[in-house]
Design a protein that fits this description.
- This protein is of the alpha+beta class.
- The protein is 12% helix and 28% strand.
- The chain contains 1 helix and 4 strands.
- Strands 1-2-4-3 form a 4-stranded antiparallel sheet, covered by helices on one side.
- A hairpin with a 7-residue loop joins strand 3 and strand 4.
- 3% of the residues are buried.
Length: 94
């Protein structure tokens, strides 16, 4: 949990050690229709929908990457009610 502008926010980070995200695409991955995959199998709306949903909740999502071959990290900030933070449990976590 971190505080930003007098709000409690849960900061989730999901990372991999894959191909990374080229600098020119780091913002574009959240644009509607953007995808590096085939148009036959992908619409390019998943991360766009995630960004819209998080914005509607007062949160945000962004990506970071050291570039090709160095993996990537998705950062997700979700506002939380400070009174409930002591009782928050994640599935599968004791």
């Amino acid at each position: 949990i971190k505080r930003e502008m007098n709000r409690a926010l849960l900061h989730l980070r999901c990372w991999d050690d894959g191909v990374g995200i080229p600098e020119e695409n780091i913002e574009r991955i959240f644009h509607k229709g953007f995808s590096t995959k085939s148009r036959e199998t992908n619409c390019g709306i998943g991360l766009h929908w995630c960004a819209n949903a998080l914005n509607a909740l007062g949160g945000r999502i962004w990506a970071s990457s050291a570039g090709d071959g160095h993996g990537a990290t998705l950062h997700i900030l979700i506002p939380v009610n400070a009174r409930e933070t002591s009782t928050v449990r994640l599935a599968g976590v004791a």
